[in-house]
Structure formats: structure tokens, C-alpha cells
Amino acid sequence: MNETARKSFSYDTHKILHVSMIAIVMIGSIVGNSIICFLLVRFKTLRTVPNILIVNLAVIDILNAVTNMPLMIMWYIYQVPYLKGRAISWFIVTWYVLFMYLTVFNLTVLTMDRFGAIVHGIHYHSWKTINKAKAAVFFVWISSAAYTYGMFTLGLDIDLGDAPVLLYRIHYLKKFGRHFIIPGYVVPFTIMVVMGVTIWRTVHNHSRRISAYSSTGKQTKNDVKTAKTIGLTVVAFFCMGVLPMLLHNISKVHGSWPHFLAFFLNHLNSMANPIIYSLKTPRFRKAFILFLKEPLGKSQPLMASKNRMDLNSTTRNLSSKVDMFHTQISSV
Question: 20 to 30 A from 133, CA-CA: which of 7, 95, 111, 254?
Fold first, then answer.
């Protein structure tokens, strides 16, 4: 009797801890990514091509937090009785997978943007526009939806009756899911790695040739900083996407810690992205500070570097002296 009570208490404790972890990530994801979106709406200077793609990733993370995370608490942790059956299981699993591919495809487009900016330089900068960035966002959503729901048409004939969502998910993975991992995951990450290596080689080869004080040098330096931030985002997603696959292969027991962590790490990535942006992107930090001071104002964050500000100050002083000299000449 006491042994049964101990097991029940331990099981309930694990459930509470699992729910608490998901709730923290859900709140952090919604708050952090909402701030990223608010900053883009508030500040025109942030509306660049890479930032449009970053905000799209933030929107994806917000939707993932408000839909998939509560659903995970219900179907995975508490296994509520009404979340079962063919139709509901198909919807929940496809919705979960959709956001996985939305993230992968959006990160691929972000890497391609940095590849064009650094490897092709001025040619790419003269070609890219905000409208093309919006078209890329539309392409990410359409291609992800087509890939996900095209894949899951193969699971429409799977009928396990009133089986829970987890059992349907296992059957989907066995029947067709594994065959779509290579083109859906491995191919995009291979593209990102190849482009990342090319970007690194380009920066390494040209860093000594371009002056850091020239306009081209400043643009290249900014592009490299953005590329590093996006690179960290890709690495974070890679770690939180590949490791769960390994954990799934190690642990088959539903509710065990390795099995739970496989799902949890995928959601944790949604909260990690705003942290990366805040730590690695001075523009977002300055904009956030100004947003706290003037949430409804019209001022824009000053992004000029110290050298540039010193140069502007020197220019203003020189202009002032020239004006005084002209005044003195005129008075004579």
C-alpha cells in the first residue's frame, strides 16, 4: 500500500515538474518573441531584410507557444480523454510537425540572405528589397505547409480507433515520417553548413583587404555580425532538433525523463531565439531600451558607431569654425 502511494506521489511530482517546465518556456517564448515583433513595428530603422525574416521566426515561435505547448501538456503529460482518435490525432501531430519545418525553412532562408550579403556583396544589396523579404516569408509558409500536409496525406488511411495521440504519432513515424526526415531536415541543414563555411572563408579572405572605416568595410562588418547571430540561432536549433531525435531512439518509455526531454528541447528553442538576439544584437538592445522609455514615441535608436560619431563631431566643429571665419571676413 505504501509502495503504491509512493509511486503515485512520484508520478504526480514528475507531472507537476514537467508542466512547470513547459509553462516557463511557453511564457518566456511568448514574452521574448512578442518584444521582437513590437520592436519591428515601433522602429522603422529595424525593418531590414534579415530582421523581417527574424520577426517571421518570432511569429512562428509565438504560435508554437500558444498552441503546441498547451496541447503537449494535455495530450502528452495528462493524456486528457477527449484528445484521441483518428481526426484529432492527425491534426495535433501535423500541427506540431508544421512548426518544425517552418523553423527549418525560415532558418534556411535566413542563411541564404547572409550568404548573398557577404559572398555577393553590393550586387545582392542592390537586388534585395523589403517586398522580396515579404515574398520569402510567404514562400516559407507555403512550402512548409505543402511539405507537411503533403507528407501526412500518407497517414489518412491509418485508423487505430480511439487510440491516444502518442500511438498515432508512433505509427505515422514508422510508416512515412522517417523517409521525410532526410529531405526535410538533413538537406536544409547541409545547405546551411555549406553556406556557413563559404561565408566564413569569404570573411577570412577579405577581412584584411577592406578597411573597417570605409563604407564597404562597415557594411561588411554589420553583415558579419548579423551572420554570427543567425549562425548561433541555427546551431541552437540544430542542437535542440538533433538531440531530441537521439533521445527518442534511446528511450521508448512514455513519460520517462529522456522521452519528455526529447519534446521539451524542441519547445525550448522557441525561448532561446530572443535571448540570442538580445545578447548578440546591439541594435535590438538599444531599440528595446528606447521602447521602454518611449513606447509610443517616434524617435529612432541611434546606431552610429563611436568612430562615426567622433567623425561627425569633428566635422561639426570644423564647419562651425569655418562659419565663424566667414563671419569675421564679412565684418571686415
Answer: 95
